[in-house]
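Researcher: Next entry: Fungal lipase-type domain-containing protein (Coccomyxa subellipsoidea).
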Amino acid sequence: MQTFSGTDELVIREWYRQGERGLRKIRSEADLFQCLHMPNVSLLWAVFYLAAFAHAQTFNEETSIADSCRHLTEAEWSKQDDSFPEILDEMNYNCGDSATSKETDPYTLQSNLLYNLLEPAVISSGQCPDRSKGTNADLKALLRELYPVMVMNVATNNVLGGKIDRFLKLTQGYTYPAVGGGVINSVEYVENQQMPSVQEYISSIPSLLAGDATLPKPIGADTKVFVVDFKAPAPKTQAAFFFFATELLNPCMWSTDSDFLQSEYKPGNDKLTAPCYGCMAHRGFLRAFHSITNTSDPKYDIAAAWTTKTGVAVEEVTSVLCSGFSLGAALATLCGPWAQATFPNAKVQVVTAGSPRVFNPAAASWYDANVEYNYRLVNNKDIVPSLPLQTWGLLKYKHVGMPIFLDRRGENLPGEYVAFRGERPEWYTGSLTDHVMGYILGMKQAMTCTMHASV
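Model: Predicted structure:
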């Protein structure tokens, strides 16, 4: 893919470019192999948490909530231009296009060497799908239906200033059959930034240790959502919520990611009839989600923003889409049961990409039994779906939803993709590049291109 480089430290670097620039700083094969070793990933998350905590100590009670999590001023946000990064390369890809990037991601090289070494044994054990059959016809049809959602999803994460006009430009013309086939009509940007002072942090420690997930000011939360409605032929009762991913230079979001302890999980705030016994969820994700669902102010609450924007009561909503990437995927996952409780007459669908694990096994079992439409895409060796670890001391984590594995051959993009239903092999992970690049490309190849047994 084409490589873009920033020329001004104050100009916002789009989501893909940030990932590429960070990876170029890491080239030692030994260091990469250590990073691939999962216990060291735990250490990496701990470092991120400490960095976020240290950043929190620089703020005081006089710090504006609106400024506490941002690394750019309003004037600096406005310097974004209308050029889009690699997302357009992926959206415009045609079968047979050759790679334009001359750089090899060493994570991909490491994982390909391991994969090629173990592939025969893994295939014979049934742990890895056989690429020679290509993408199943039914899965191709599903990918065609989900593809517009992925475009909207990735577009959400290319407008870091919450600039709705940029989002609409990227998603122009895309329709989603599950919401009646209409294009996006209007977008409301909801953001709740919360950063406690040092005194507030110290006073909240007892509640934090007790696992209280409803604190009014969680440590470093910055939750961003696009609230969307659609044009005809989609009825006005179709709602969609697109949750933002972690921004590279946003310490509040990193603090949310790294708070991986678990709190009691009550699906739909106990408004659903099916009880969830022994259910726990990632504390940081749960707090962040509560910050945009436990108020009545449309500036901060996504349900209130929907009714205020559209005039449609929650009881009248017939369909809800919850979607997100990375951190946004975790929040979209939590959105599913919440939407079932909040919009009692709606069909709820969850579509995520690059999602970390959110629940303990009990909550995951409840979720899969009660949220029918939940699709979770995993791109090649994307490292984030491997986090948090399935077992982390006394903590247990488990994925939810129907996984769709986008398997790529080739060290450089575009490579050659085949899609499969089901989980990827557990060891097939370790790439940050596969987290920030390749989801749209992989879906497009898998649903339109013919891959052969030799790839």
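Model: Note for the record: The chain has one domain: 15-448.
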